[in-house]
Amino acid sequence: MTSKNKTPRNLAESVCAELRKRHAVVPDEKIIVDLLETMYYSSLKTEESEPVTFHVVFLDPSQPDPKPPRNPVKDRWSYVPFAEPIAFSVSNLVKIAKSSDLRTSSFVIWPDRDDQLFIWGLVDQQNRFHKFLNRSADIEPERPGLFQASVEGIGIIVVYMRYEKVAELRINELLRNSLDIFRESPVRDLLSFGIDRYLQAVRSHIPDDMYQAQDQMDEFHTQQWLSVLCRILLRIEKIKNGGAILITEDINPADLNIKYKIDYDRLPSSLESNAITKIKTDYLEKHLLGLSESKPKEIASSQFFQLRRFEKELRANKNEIDGVIWFVALLTRVDGLVVMDRNLAVRGYGVEITNSQEPSNLFIAGDKMATPAKLRPVSYNHFGTRHRSMMRYCYQNQGSIGFVVSQDGEVRVMTKVDERLVVWENIKLKYYSYASRKK
After folding, report:
1. Minimal CA–CA distance to 169: which of 40, 31, 32?
2. In degrees to the nearest 10, what's the CA dihedral of 184, 187, 189, 192?
3. What angle do CA 19, 24, 29 make, to 5 degrees?
4. Backbone torsion region of residue 178, taken as left when φ is above 0, otherwise alpha when ψ lies between -120 and 50, otherwise beta
5. Segments making up each domain of the chain, as ranges
6. Residues whose CB falls within 8 Å of the CB of residue 402, separated by 6 or more in sequence, listed in order
7. Burial of 315 (0-12, 13-18, 19+ CB in 10 A)
8. Which CATH class is domain 186-424?
9. Distance CA 58, CA 28 (A)
């Protein structure tokens, strides 16, 4: 009888299958199993009372960079070898783990001639991938090695090939696909009100001739709006304190006790300002490029200075949005939730949900669309206090959306679909595609 519990061996099978699909050199599966099992058991340890987390790259130290680019960027990765390789064991990993971080560096892992795994050194400048993954950069970074793997929590291992996610082992579950509810789902439909208001505000500040490729522009700026919401949730996840955000149309005093009332609309205003500046920058840049090719003598120096000013404004806009994301995420550390309107303006925090009526039904979604045939009924009492209070509110207030982040980093989203309260788990928040979806 096949066990429902998945292990590092199952993750290794997925990695080897993906390597074969890519016609890459596939190491002996036993080596990959050994690698992932050692990572898994290391994740169960602590070092100075803190969880052990680290990042590795499966990279041949004898040929770390076989095809370097002709003009590498300044912050490109480099291989930093140890004077002597270190045996790849749980005890050694626990001791050295803190010198690796997905934001900065990775351990270089590779077998020796006897197929024994060793830590051969480090790869630096991993912050480019970290920024891309967490939606702080739009450029797909170059990645070293055959594949990369991270210990992101107790019993949690994620494997990537370049910027594509292969699979994730989460305790005893093997996850190959997260639910991309921010692209298409009942949740995405409810968010459309705020997105449409945002796009209308942007268009009102842009001349018609500058807003030509409207559909394409709308999609780009829609993704920027959604990306900021994802980044807030990712930031709450990283804080590891747990937290919750409620997006609701009406802030009903009968249902919500707002301890700290504020009217903080800097998130929608900074998004709007950034979009307007981005459109103007792209338009002027394209205009100047066209003139430089056809009529170089007609280019005025003032236009170049204007372009530089726009670019400076864009950098300032980015810094402002980063600051707002931190501001909102930290509000969730206070006991209670953060309440937002549908435009993403914060209306209060330290919010207590006073509604005591339990939902008459509750389902876990099996797909992003909450298809009835793929809904799994679950007990309301299975969840903790924070989840249950959000469930009560969302069930009684159709159109509201609850985001709950547990202390272990699990993110759940809930709303009422028709007459059913639906909860989505395993949500896609980060910027990656899925290797399993590639043809």
Report:
1. 40
2. -110
3. 50
4. beta
5. 8-176, 186-424
6. 244, 245, 246, 390, 391, 393, 394, 413, 414, 415
7. exposed
8. alpha beta
9. 13
Cα–Cα dist 200/276, whole Å: 11
The fold adopted by the segment(s) 8-176 is: YojJ-like (1 (3.40.1700)
Question: What does the alpha-carbon distance between residue 162 and residue 6 come to, in Å, rounded to a whole number?
Answer: 24
Which tokens go with 159? 């494997």
pLDDT of residue 176: 85
Q: Beta-strand (E) ranges in 77-126?
A: 79-87, 106-111, 117-123
- CB count, 10 Å around CB of 256? 22
- d(C-alpha 284, C-alpha 306), whole Å: 9
Q: Which tens digits make up the pLDDT trace of 119-167?
A: 999 999 777 666 666 666 666 667 789 999 999 989 999 999 877 889 9
Helix ranges, 1-65 (H): 8-21, 29-43
Same CATH fold, 186-424 and 8-176? yes
Q: Which residues contact 45 (CB under 8 A, 6 or more apart)?
A: 52, 90, 94
pLDDT tens for 235-250 read 999 888 899 999 999 8
**Contact residues for 160 (Cβ-Cβ < 8 A; gap 6+):** 143, 147, 148, 149, 150, 166, 432
Tokens of 149: 């793997």
Question: Which residue type occupies 112?
Answer: D
Computed over its alpha carbons, how large is the radius of gyration of the chain?
Answer: 24
pLDDT tens digits, 17-33: 999 999 888 899 999 99
**Lookup: tokens for 109:** 């892992």
